[in-house]
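Task: encode each sequence below as structure tokens.

Item 1
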Amino acid sequence: MSYRSCRPEDFDAFVTRHENSLFRAALAMTGNVSDAEDILQETFMRAYEKAPEFASDKHERAWLMKPEEIYDILKEIGVSL
């Protein structure tokens, strides 16, 4: 079941499913573990808020890995590349 149901256990499964690949992407972009962890946290918070907008699991993964989203988060947390 997708986390779009907004049940906490479904969101936990969603995070577990995507956290490693998202962390690796964020770390590759920043070269900094702390910044990558901040990106990971902020991205999952945004994903939870956008849950009803996702049409499928494939759509949610595409959104998570979207570089523009990560760059926006970097700007917000004050990191420049």
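Item 2
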Amino acid sequence: MSSDRTERRDFLRITGAGIAGAALQPHSAEAQTVSAFSGSGICDVKLFGAKGDGKTIDTPAINRAIEAAVAAGGGMVRFPAGQYLWYSIRLKSNIALYLDQNAAIIAADPTSSGSDGYDLAEPISSWDPYQDFGHNHWHNSLFWGGGLENLSIHGPGLIWGRGLSGGWGPGPVAEHAGVANKAVSLKNCHNVILRDFSILKGGHFGILATGVDSLTIDNLKIDTDRDGIDIDCCRNVRVSNCSVNSPWDDAICPKSSYALGYARSTENVTITNCYVTGAYKLGTLLDGTFQRFEPGSKVYGNGRIKFGTESNGGFRNITISNCVFEGCYGLALETVDGALLEDISIANITMRDIVCPIFMRLGSRMRSPAGVATGALRRILISNFVCSNADSRFSSILPGHPIEDIQLSDIYIQHQGGGTAATAAIQPPEVEDKYPEPNMFGDMPSQGFFIRHAKNISFSNVEILSLKEDTPAGLHSPGRSGR
């Protein structure tokens, strides 16, 4: 994982590729293309001068290899085992990057001058205020591409964002020239496959996909200090078999921001067979030691699947199934910037050591163009759901404006209990214009479900169990209508 633990290997020969003369270092573009693709369609980056020694900046060699592949009409760019230190790599259409076992792509530390480092962020636009800096820019990344098609990054190697900014806290400042804050960043692309690799410390976003359609994300392992996977304004997306540890931010986030300069929905998405957590020290999911934080550590423990908070374009036709949550916040469905959130099916979910298993919030933060109305949250089905050791301070459902047509069935929630008569008498504030989080209301009068401003809410075979003696109700619903 780290440079002192990764054994460097000398791969001067391409196996199974049918490429002669692996020690050859071609100089002209024509010679590079012929040597790299002769009889195979596979290009070894070391043929273009990449050292993979963890010391040399390999950016020029990697970009040359990619350009040669493009000139040949497309193909695979292969990274043999080694440690490749670089700045921004510009992805292209019709290219597959393959990271061999024990190949580590390492984000170099930014240069002190800000020049000759990562590509600069795009100019500021009039819609930048509607989302954070990280959502508005793509070029300032380790891998980036825009307007591409037929692109893949795959293989069992590692992407280590060592020199990336997380967008907050110590380290490089994301807004400074020559600093990058994302591992993989894509905008307005289609037919993209991301499969089998791992990400360690991915910056503000391990993966930021904005306006990317027909996107497959499969079998990734992500161990990071901010968001793992952000799916923003994307359609026809399949996320499967991924494991994400993100103790200080969210694991998998469908979003619908205004970053494209207009409101575009995220829709036709499936998220399945994934494990999300915020319980483990950075890097210990990847190395398999799964080390817990010491008591009293300042860790948010987010690590969840969350819709939002950026919610301008809407969320439609999305399923979440067969997912495991551990030591993190629970499911969050949030629309606070005017979007519709509708037609969502969630099934076969198991949780342990959770803060607020289910959080639904229809608010009016309205970080959006003037004149946009409050959105809607409706037609949500949640079934076959089990949670143990839930934090009793926060109830499971907290709408801010009327939500409707919610069905909850076959649900078992075991919570810590210990509520008092004083907590049972609490009247939570509305705060409909605030950033949505389960802890925004403080302690709650119920330990299972708190429901208000809602209609047509259905419960079927729902059980709530308290581990300790508990005064607050399992269900609290002032002013609720429904069945």
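Check on item 2: The chain has one domain: 29-476. The CA atoms of residues 6 and 102 lie 7 Å apart.
End of task.
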